[in-house]
From TrEMBL, chain A:
It comes from the Bacteria. The keyword Oxidoreductase applies. InterPro entries: Ald_Oxase/Xan_DH_a/b (IPR000674), Ald_Oxase/Xan_DH_a/b_sf (IPR036856), Ald_Oxase/xanthine_DH-like (IPR016208), AldOxase/xan_DH_MoCoBD1 (IPR008274), AldOxase/xan_DH_MoCoBD2 (IPR046867), AldOxase/xan_DH_Mopterin-bd_sf (IPR037165). Keywords: Molybdenum, Oxidoreductase. This is Carbon-monoxide dehydrogenase large subunit. Residues 30-144 form the Aldehyde oxidase/xanthine dehydrogenase a/b hammerhead domain. GO terms for molecular function: iron ion binding; oxidoreductase activity.
UniProtKB/TrEMBL annotation, chain B:
The lineage of its organism: Bacteria, Bacillati, Actinomycetota, Actinomycetes, Geodermatophilales. One of its GO terms (molecular function) is 2 iron, 2 sulfur cluster binding. Residues 5-81 form the 2Fe-2S ferredoxin-type domain. Keywords: 2Fe-2S, Iron, Iron-sulfur, Metal-binding, Oxidoreductase. Pfam families: Fer2, Fer2_2. It comes from Trujillonella endophytica. Pathway: Alkaloid degradation; nicotine degradation. The keyword Cell division does not apply. SUPFAM superfamilies: 2Fe-2S ferredoxin-like, CO dehydrogenase ISP C-domain like. InterPro entries: 2Fe-2S-bd, 2Fe-2S-bd_dom_sf, 2Fe-2S_ferredoxin-like_sf, 2Fe-2S_ferredoxin-type, 2Fe2S_fd_BS, Beta-grasp_dom_sf, Diverse_Oxidoreductases. Residues 158-181 are annotated as: Disordered. The keyword Iron applies. This is Carbon-monoxide dehydrogenase small subunit. It comes from the Bacteria.
Length: 787, 181
């Protein structure tokens, strides 16, 4: 069941708006994909890392002599070998002077999380490299780890021992930033005088990206070519090049980074972490080829962690449930070595907490703290805590006021007549449709009828609940990320190569961007090929992340295509002795409008543009190539409403998701099949996060969920069919596209938690905890107080 | 005992020989010694199913089998399922039709598992399909496109009408242009 409400001019064409099958698929379904591990160089030395078995301590013995002596081992490198090579280490998006913890490739004196790399073996095979690890003599004098437990962790990180003595504090960062107001007196007045103020603290546990292809990199330094060649499983090849060249003091022209097929990332492969940099440094210092493929245990323990935060929200309303003000305080655990800067997502969470509502007065503060755990990395919807907390608090507030949660939302949502709407944080929302998507989602799921069904079920002793959640997906495109370039080049034969700095890792970019270009040029999609993920051939770019590909690359592709089309028509106009304005392109043929006989094919036009340039006017540049670097707003928005119905087994505490509905507005859809795939995949990551996935440390900082037997991903048997409705309101950026890749993961946690909370309302309500394991659910049913 | 052993495996109908250490997994033998890299490794502890191959007709996790154990056996990998080069098996085609993959890393394991599953149960219920797929992990798709792909193959093998258009994850009715690939 799907409904589509489309505004006029919603961009459906020969290819745009069509569910074109993916051109990636033929190779991937037959086993002919080329992922990093499929293209390892025959001369590469294989890496295994010796990792810290404890969360914190001083290294008293590190003896690698026996390992170095093992036949087949080329080298065993320690911090003493590699870290002197480090010239400079920072992430482009964060800037050179942004604060960050002390960085090191390999721990030499002390260790700061369980899993931190200490030494690396280079051997003829991974098998041999792991043999050599067993010959390394390592002793660590364990120190008390700064690790929080599940509930009361935040106090522990502030006092006493420091995760990073060099940093001087366990507080990694705070909001408001220096220079910003540190309170909002008008909000304090509202909170003191409003008829209703509800305050709750919501907790989100540690759950993580776990792409099916783990991290990996191979690097080869060739002094004769003066070139460090890299193939990496990455979202952003240019960041790989930049980070490595800065690290080793090389120039950008001395480093060539590229990616092959990338087996998922979800944020994990945005930045370049210490293991990847250690491989590049080893290749440089050893003057050879070095390869590392992370194994799953490494990926779980040291591959970057996410979530792990609390958000306290106070919400003031008048007597009728109109929101008068919101105040938030956010505390995040960023681990020891966040992959970017000092980690943390509070800056964006601060901007987005008001969501699709007109909230009146507003203030937000935050604190990020280091701990002796794996560092924070971005994970799909990194700042989703704002939606997770807000949407739960709305349900709790509505229940206390005796107002239906859907009605409460509708009363407070930004109305069409308020657009463009400027939020308290200065965001300008121009084309959002929160009420329309709320209406569509509640209609699709049959909200009104469900309440009757629920009452009847409760009378039979069954436990049913419904949960609604709404949000605005903010896609940050700060700095270079908002200025992506697409170059379209048509060679002598009349087909188009499209060069872009994207880094597809499942987003179907080879298909969707070809749709955009083929549409503009009027040629067949089979005559368009996308080239990406290579620092030599791709225009400088920031890769695929943050839901930006459609808006930035898609927008640029559209305009680059328009520019090339103009040029094609100019050349054709010479050949046809007509005005370009009188020409049209149909299926790769340019003809004079209304005169079908006067026509010329793309191959002839291309030949004329290059080889026949003497026939062109003197002021016309030969060739057929156009580029456009887009300038998009720093934040772009889509919106959606999710609705879930769950039934709880009162004996086992198991939660069954009986229905799941999404109504979303991502503007013009390039490929509805791909849009729906992104939504569904995101929703199921939320299902995993709420019910199954939990990376657990014990009180000493030892990781306990180190395999897929302990870190549980949802399977096909755990998820329902996802029903999707579309409201189509074009954005004001080229193509009318909006960002949407992360929303499924952002809004599903609160929708699901709200459904469970609604189901358990007769039992006294749900504590603000995650994950919602059967134990948590059964404790509510059995009346056991929350810990 | 750790000396390399010569082995011969019939892989996708072809006798292939290699000399391998006893500790080397079948997955690594296929990928490294026989250069069949379609079989992927995503956990190496038997949970995710990405490395699934058919060993004498049965679906197995090739990360949990040693190469020497497959000596003399017949192995089918994802590369051996299509009827001819450039063609797709019905399961592979259904994955493309139904958007059953995004990054594609888990896909070979799913495709091999589904061939074995449908050989054993040609007419599964929806619940049996979901249960049958639950031994393979996918992180991208949310499984909707994969479930729909299995439904399509079941329908087609039962003599149902050929699939028209693209049944997307939500059953969203859309039209595919004749010129689309």
């Amino acid at each position: 069941m799907t409904a589509t409400q489309a505004a006029p001019g919603s961009g459906v064409g020969r290819f745009l708006g069509q569910s074109v099958k993916r051109r990636e698929d033929a190779r991937l379904v037959t086993g002919h994909g080329r992922y990093l591990e499929d293209v390892l160089w025959p001369d590469a030395w294989h890496v295994a890392f010796l990792r810290s078995p404890v969360a914190r301590g001083r290294i008293s013995t590190l003896d690698v002599k026996a390992a170095r002596a093992l036949p087949g081992v080329r080298a065993v490198l320690t911090g003493a070998d590699l870290d002197p090579l480090v010239k400079s280490w920072w992430q482009t998006a964060m800037g050179k002077d942004s604060p960050q913890p002390p960085r090191r490739l390999l721990a030499a004196d002390d260790v700061r999380y369980a899993g931190e790399p200490i030494a690396m073996v280079l051997a003829e095979s991974r098998y041999l490299a792991e043999d050599a690890l067993e010959l390394i003599d390592l002793d660590i004098e364990t120190q008390p780890a700064i690790v929080s437990d599940h509930r009361g962790r935040w106090g522990a990180a502030k006092d006493g021992e420091l995760v990073h003595p060099e940093y001087g504090s366990n507080v990694a960062s705070t909001l408001p930033y220096p220079g910003m107001p540190d309170s909002n007196p008008a909000l304090e007045e509202v909170l003191a005088s409003a008829p209703h103020v509800v305050e709750e603290t919501f907790h989100q546990h540690r759950y993580i990206c776990v792409p099916m292809e783990t991290r990996g990199i191979q690097a080869r330094w060739d002094p004769a070519r003066d070139l460090l060649e890299i193939v990496s499983s990455t979202q952003n090849v240019h960041e790989v090049r930049s980070t490595v060249s800065r690290l080793l003091g090389l120039s950008d022209v001395q480093v060539h980074a590229r990616a092959e097929d990338v087996g998922g990332a979800f944020g994990l492969k945005c930045f370049v972490d210490s293991e990847e940099l250690a491989v590049a440094a080893a290749a440089y210092s050893q003057q050879c080829a070095v390869a590392w493929i992370e194994d799953r245990n490494e990926n779980l323990v040291a591959g970057g962690h996410s979530r792990t935060e609390d958000l306290t929200v106070s919400l003031a309303t008048d007597a009728d449930g109109k929101i008068l003000g919101i105040k938030g305080h956010h505390v995040e655990d960023v681990g020891a070595f966040p992959t970017y800067g000092v980690g943390g997502n509070a800056g964006l969470a601060m901007m987005m907490l008001p969501g699709p509502y007109d909230v009146g007065q507003y203030f937000y503060s935050a604190e990020a703290v280091f701990s002796n755990t794996c560092g924070m990395t971005p994970y799909r919807g990194p700042f989703l805590m704002e939606t997770v907390a807000r949407e739960q608090l709305i349900d709790i507030t509505a229940a206390r006021l005796g107002i239906d949660p859907v009605e409460f939302r509708r009363r407070n949502m930004i109305r069409p007549d308020q657009l463009p709407f400027t939020t308290p944080t200065g965001l300008v929302l121009e084309t959002i449709t929160p009420i329309e998507t709320l209406d569509q989602a509640t209609e699709m799921i049959g909200y009104a009828d469900f309440r009757k069904e629920q009452a009847a079920a409760r009378a039979e002793g069954r436990i049913l609940g419904i949960g609604i959640a709404s949000y605005i997906e903010g896609s940050p495109a700060f700095g270079a990320a908002g200025a992506e370039q697409v170059t379209v080049r048509m060679d002598m034969a009349g087909q188009a190569l499209v060069f872009m700095g994207s880094g597809s890792h499942g987003q179907s970019v080879e298909t969707t961007m070809a749709q955009v270009v083929a549409e503009e040029l009027g040629i067949d999609i089979d005559d368009v090929r996308i080239v990406q993920g290579d620092t030599i051939s791709s225009p400088y770019g920031t890769g695929t992340a943050g839901s930006r590909t459609a808006t930035t690359f898609g927008g640029a592709a559209r305009i680059a295509g328009q520019k090339l089309k103009e040029k094609i028509l100019q050349v054709a106009a010479v050949a046809l002795e007509a005005s370009p304005d009188d020409l049209e392109i149909t299926d790769g043929v340019v003809s004079v409008k209304g005169t079908p006989g006067a026509a010329i094919g793309m191959e002839q036009i291309a030949a004329m543009a290059y080889a026949g340039h003497t026939m062109l006017p003197a002021d016309m540049e030969p060739g057929l190539e156009a580029k456009h670097r887009i300038r998009n707003p720093p934040l772009m928005f889509s919106n959606a409403c999710h609705a879930a119905i769950v039934e709880i087994d009162r004996d086992t505490g198991a939660v069954e998701i009986k229905r799941y509905v999404v109504s979303e507005d991502c503007g013009n859809m390039i490929n509805p099949m791909v849009v729906e795939g992104q939504i569904t995949g995101g929703v199921v990551q939320g299902i995993g996060g709420v019910f199954y996935e939990h990376f657990v440390y014990d009180g000493d900082g030892n990781p306990l969920t180190t395999t897929f037997l302990d870190y549980l991903l949802p399977t096909a048997a755990d998820v329902p069919d996802i029903e999707i409705g579309h409201v189509i309101t074009p954005s004001n950026t080229p193509g009318g596209f909006k960002p949407m890749g992360e929303g499924g993961a952002i809004c599903s946690p609160p929708a699901l938690i709200n459904a469970v909370r609604d189901a358990l309302a007769p039992f006294g309500g749900l504590p603000n905890v995650q994950p919602l394991t059967p134990e948590v659910v059964l404790d509510v049913i059995d009346g056991v107080p929350a810990v | 005992m750790s000396d390399p052993h010569p082995i011969t495996i019939t892989v996708n109908g072809q006798a292939r020989s290699a000399i391998v250490e006893p500790r080397k997994t079948l997955a690594d033998v296929l990928r490294e010694d026989l250069r069949l890299t379609g079989t992927h490794l995503a956990c190496e502890h038997g949970v995710c199913g990405a490395c699934t191959v058919l060993l004498d007709g049965s679906a197995v996790r090739s990360c949990l089998v040693f190469g020497v154990q497959a000596d003399g056996a017949e192995v089918t990998t994802v590369e051996g399922l299509a009827p001819a080069p450039g063609e797709l098996s019905d399961v592979q085609a259904a994955f493309r039709d139904c958007h059953g993959l995004q990054c594609g890393f888990c896909t070979p394991g799913f495709v091999v598992s589904i061939h074995a599953f449908l050989d054993a149960n040609p007419a599964p219920t929806d619940e049996e399909i979901r249960s049958g797929l639950s031994g393979n992990l996918c992180r991208c798709t949310g499984y909707a496109g994969i479930v729909n792909a299995v439904r399509q193959v079941v329908r087609e093998r039962a003599g149902g009408p050929p699939t028209e258009g693209v049944p997307t994850v939500a059953g969203h009715a859309v039209t595919t242009l004749p010129s689309a690939p």
